[in-house]
Amino acid sequence: MHHFEYRGGRLHAEAVDLTALAETVGTPFYVYSEATLRRHIQVFQKSFADTDILVAYSVKANSNLAVLKVLASEGAGADVVSGGELKRALAAGIAPAKIVFSGVGKTDEEMSAALDAGIHQFNVESEPELIALSRVAVAIGKTAPIALRINPDVAAGGHAKISTGKSVDKFGVPYADAHTIFKRAATLPGIDVKGVDVHIGSQISELAPFEAAFGRVADLINTLRSDGITIERLDLGGGLGIPYGEGLTPPHPDAYGEMIKRITASLDVELIVEPGRMIVGNAGVLVSRVVYVKENGDRQFLILDAGMNDLLRPALYDAYHDIWPVAEPSGSTTIVYDVVGPVCESGDRFAASRALPEMREGDFVAILSAGAYGAVQASQYNSRPLTPEVLVNGDKHAIIRRRPSFEEMVALEETADWL
Ligand SMILES: *Cc1c(COP(=O)(O)O)cnc(C)c1O
User: Fold this and answer.
1) Which residue from 71, 242, 253, 259 could staple onto 281, CB 3.0 to 4.6 Å apart?
2) What is the structure's pLDDT at 171?
3) 248 and 396 share a domain?
């Protein structure tokens, strides 16, 4: 469910007319609905009502400070994967006690900053990382609460570039080694073993892979406990998919919550979940303008002013996004277009052979479900400025990241003194 719909023939974000917004902000830009953000986090929290759980929003899906503030005001915690994301979460007012730190390559500096902040948990992904964390913690006189991320060797379906739970993926420690590493962790100074962590991938559209992975970690917890290792927490990661309009209907958070409660009922652990896409994906769209309509033989290209540098998902993951005209089409005639961007790469394509109403130069289009892994992956490739982001609340809007000027884009560059 989201708050992007036609009113009087014009696409709106809540009560904000996107045509008018496009004229003031200039295209391309991302626009997020605050009502949708709030609704999604609430639905998610509600499906775990009466459970001892920390809902740690995965900051990498959309790390804009205003978005984080909205989620913080709903009581969400944060799952961060870098020192920068940690700073963002803290700046947005998320309590350190609600922050978990994941990622395979945490540096000494990042560990130290997180220890200073007093975060809830480090999700440790390897034995070398465990040893480094112990060393860093001892050096500054702190203790690191940790969970060990287990790679359950479960195929999660979906695109290979977003699968993380197979033994060939770089994430977590092998299931078979987990026991030994836990025993090692229990003996290390500066380390306080709290729990087990798992995250098997993203845009997962059925419950079965989750259930298989969670069942395996539940078994592991029982084994560890019978060996005298105290396990009080279970972090189940994120990964729940969303409908992108491509025909998949991922499970509702209620069904996901039910399954988790069933599998973990007898474990008596504090649960942690790290939803990202599910919270922000359908809360944002990318608005763009048709620069040209171009005919090449029998193909019709819609050339937009947004490109792969603004929204990388189609190029990176072959992702499907619905595309809607911002002015509601009056008839039902459609034309089959390849919808592409201006970037000099053949991969700069949002959709191939997509039936859309007839479009003209200057028309606006909205690329839907662009709230997650959209603006955060934007770059300045082709010296295109970073895409602005706008937050809507009812009939109000605020620019929550403005478009940089050319001078700002090149401000970090210098010519070498011999040039
Ligand atoms: C990316 C990521 C998430 C969030 O995944 P979604 O598919 O956006 O829910 C959660 N936990 C970890 C460790 C991640 O890397």
Assistant:
1) 242
2) 86
3) no
